[in-house]
């Protein structure tokens, strides 16, 4: 946890960074923070109106001109990811960072009642889609001098919890995939891969999961950005295959 990390203003200058689920919640805050620290941010998500708002906010703040990439992990095919890689290659020629942040909660429900279609949908959005997108984009990260790939985990991806079903399983899979990829890229010192658990954070997803909770007790997406910046920028170069937390555990 690097909650006290003070990112220099130019931390991400000249870096091209893709953020998935950039229209809302933690992804929106990360896109704004990365742009504020100099990155050209590619805003990926399924709701274009939300991405356009983030785009406008970055422009209004004087950040580098971002790009919008509409994509829904539910329906996306291998060809979509390959086309995406081609477009980004033509536009930018490389990727210096990927924040895999888009996520779907599914339902908090006893496993005996878990709907298999919903289970498949959560696995598609949280892990299968991001895996094939990563496969298509790896050559672009390898073209970078110093690329950071961050997968978003959860505390239920490190210890299983009753009723969290597909969401918990998808986050365990995320941790596993990160380890496999980090080990494979061990001889590729310019690409690192880690997981980051944001911890309890005030977003729509958290409100859905814990409807009765007092929002005042939660950190905001902005509060947890120091670790998001540290793990994306050059101060964490060389660190790979590790599981990070964006905030200390709540007492
Ligand atoms: P939000 O629900 O606020 O945001 C999720 C983002 O993912 C939205 O921008 C959403 O798009 C996007 N998304 C969802 N489904 C798809 C899809 N099919 N295709 C493309 N984009 C999609 O959640 P958070 O900001 O809270 O969560 C961000 C990440 O952090 C997730 O991976 C989550 O699992 C993880 N996390 C969050 C915690 C918390 O306390 N908030 C705790 C632990 C982990 P749209 O806006 O269009 O719906």
TrEMBL record:
PANTHER family hit by this protein: ALCOHOL DEHYDROGENASE
| UniProt GO MF annotations | oxidoreductase activity
Task: Note the superkingdom of the native organism.
Answer: Bacteria
Q: What organism, scientifically named, is this protein from?
A: Vreelandella azerica
Protein's name in the database: YciK family oxidoreductase
Q: Which UniProt keywords apply?
A: Oxidoreductase
Q: Which CDD domains match?
A: Ycik_SDR_c (cd05340)
A family per Pfam: adh_short
Asked whether the UniProt record includes Zinc among its keywords, one would answer no
Q: Which family does it belong to?
A: Belongs to the short-chain dehydrogenases/reductases (SDR) family.
Q: Which InterPro entries match?
A: NAD(P)-bd_dom_sf, Sc_DH/Rdtase_CS, SDR_fam, YciK
Establish whether keyword Isomerase is in the entry.
Answer: no
